[in-house]
Amino acid sequence: MPKLTVQNLANLEVKVGEGQTLLKALQSQHIDWMHACGGKGRCTSCRIIVLQGMEHLGPLTESEVRYRNNSRLKDNERLTCQCTLAAGDATGKVPDQTKLPHLTYSS
C-alpha cells in the first residue's frame, strides 16, 4: 500500500488506500489537517508541498488545474482533498500558512 510521509509532522507515515485522497487517508488516522472548504476543492487550505514522489501522485484534478492557472497552487504543491497516491510513496510537508496552532511541527 502506498505511503505518504509528512516530514514536518515528525516524519508521520500514513498509508493511502487505492482511490483514497490524501486528506481522507490523514483523517482516517485522526490527523488534523486544514481544509476550510470541507475537502471539496474550493480553496487551497489543504495543500501539501511535495518534496519527493510527485510522479506517484494521480493526475491533477480540474480544481488543481484552475488554482495552478491562477497562481494559487505552485508546481510542487497538491490539494490533499483532490490528490491520490497511485503507486509508490511520497513525502511532503505542511506549508507554514496552513499549519494548525494546536499541532507541533518539526523543521
In words, what does this structure look like?
With 107 residues, this protein is α+β, with helices and mostly antiparallel strands. It has one domain: Ubiquitin-like (UB roll), CATH 3.10.20. The chain contains two helices and five strands; from the N terminus they run ββαβαββ. It has helices at residues 22-28, 62-69; strands spanning 3-6, 12-15, 47-52, 77-79, 90-93. It has a five-stranded mixed β-sheet, covered by helices on one side. The longest helix has 8 residues, at 62-69. The chain is globular and about 30 Å long. 30% of the residues are buried. It holds the Pfam family Fer2. Its cofactor is [2Fe-2S] cluster.
Question: Which structural traits does this protein have?
Answer:
107 residues; alpha+beta; Ubiquitin-like (UB roll); globular; 2Fe-2S_ferredoxin-like_sf; Beta-grasp_dom_sf
Query: Which stretches of 5+ consecutive residues score pLDDT under 50?
Result: none
Question: Cα distance, first to last residue?
Answer: 27 Å
Oligomer: single chain
Strand order of the largest sheet: 2-1-5-3-4
The total number of structural domains is 1
Work out the helix count: 2
CATH homologous superfamily annotation = Beta-grasp domain
Number-wise, the strands total 5
**CATH class designation:** Alpha Beta
The percent of residues in helical segments reads: 10-25%
CATH architecture: Roll
- The portion of residues forming beta strands comes to 15-25%
The overall average pLDDT, rounded, is 96
Shape call: globular
Q: Mind summarizing the main beta sheet?
A: 5 strands, mixed
